[in-house]
Amino acid sequence: MDDGRWGFEEAEDWEYEQSARAEEPVPDEDRLVGRDPDRIISVTVSPGAEVLAVAVDRDWTRAVDPRGLHSSVVAAANAATMAALARQVEDVQRNPPAPPDFGGSQSRSADESPLSPDDMLRLVDAATSEMNRFTEQAAAVVDRRLTAESAGGHLSGAAINGQVVDISIDPTWAGSVRSTEIASEIKDVLQQLHVATTPPEIINGPQGSAIAEIMGMLYDPQRLSRRVGLLPPLNGETTEERRND
Question: According to the UniProt record, where is the region Disordered (predicted)?
Answer without folding.
Answer: 1-36, 93-117
